[in-house]
Amino acid sequence: MMQASRCWNLVAIVTLSTWAVWAAEPEVPKDRPRSGILADPLDFSRPPTLPKIEAPTGEEIETSINRGVEFLLGIQNANDSWGSATNTKGLNVYAPVPGSHHAFRAATTSLCISALLEVAPDNPEAMQSVDRAEDWLMDHLSSLRRATGDAIYNVWGHAYSIQALVRLRRRQSEDAARRVRIDDLIREQFDMLRRYESVDGGWGYYDFRYQAQRPTSSSISFVNGTVLVALAEAKASGIEPPERIVRRAVAATKRQQKKDFSYLYGEYLKDRPMLGINRPGGSLGRTQCCNCALRMWGDESITDNVAKNWLYRLYVRNGWLDIGRKRPVPHESWFQVAGYFYYFGHFYASLSLEQLPESEQGPYKPLLAKLMLDRQEKNGSWWDYPLYNYHQQYGTAFALMTLQRCK
Predict the structure, then answer these.
(1) Hey, what long-range contacts does 164-167 have (CB within 8 A, 24 or more apart)?
(2) Is residue 86 part of a domain?
(3) How does pLDDT run across 61-102, given as a tens digit for each residue?
(4) pLDDT average, residue stretch 197-212
(5) Is residue 2 part of a domain?
């Protein structure tokens, strides 16, 4: 997710057409359901029929969460942030120093703050950890910029820091001076996102075109979704984001939306809609984020049944994402799925789950919870892509926040 790569540059272009053939979904007779998915993939008039699974117990979920919290507390840096530029062996990441790591660390630290505030608000040790991380974030966030003209990873830091700051703001409800500083930092992130917005609207994390002061990067669907979710959370907390960047990001994301609510990887692939990564299996981790974000900003076409069917697809077709998990080369798996889509996708699926009426959420919670519990590592962490020393931290944060919504 946060790291990406030089996208198609690191994966031999000549193999893409072969991958697209291998990844193509087989033709299924119209009178036979597709593994339980609606026979007509464009028909979202009804909810799916869910599989019967052995649902994790509340105790199992709580135990898993506690193990994840212990992992985060044990791996926090001496300077109170999370993540570092170590573990470089075998990496396939374009990350110009030092700016890329400023972005990775800010985003990772923000995610860990958000996770601990959500899942362990009554844990004194966890809250002491958050206090220290909050100080680190406030000291370093204002200096976050893009690494180079072509590497704009800082957009991840701006987005996830907004979400962390919104949660910190709620926690500091009685400290007026602290809330003012937090509000100022949130508005500062708005300004950074305005500054690094693509000329086409929305955001990308690379600018391989002209590397201009205003990025000429292609709008990337799931980056737009990530930022729009953060901006919606800020608005809900009483801090209004700039209307123009929201409107343009929504439009850029809608341009990448297909009729079945899968999404292009980026707008630069608009002429290749059936490339593997743009098909439903390739979009599995992005659809949850983009649907959730657009729905937050009033898109009425994304109904409860759309959300339910894509939550269902995430479970029954999880192998398309899971088979890419832990692969060291981005986009080397079927449908050109990269490992970093995994926990990212499930976190936004849990936000999409929250958008359903509370009375209708119950049947979908065990599906997400089981996926998370089955993939927790022996040390209590979760990770999906080897990214220096950031992957266990951000993966664990995503998984914890996912499980919190499955209780």
Answers:
(1) 164/109, 164/110, 164/111, 164/113, 164/114, 164/117, 164/137, 165/137, 165/189, 166/230, 166/233, 166/234, 166/237, 166/239, 167/113, 167/114, 167/117, 167/118
(2) yes
(3) 999 999 999 999 999 999 999 999 999 988 889 999 999 999
(4) 96
(5) no
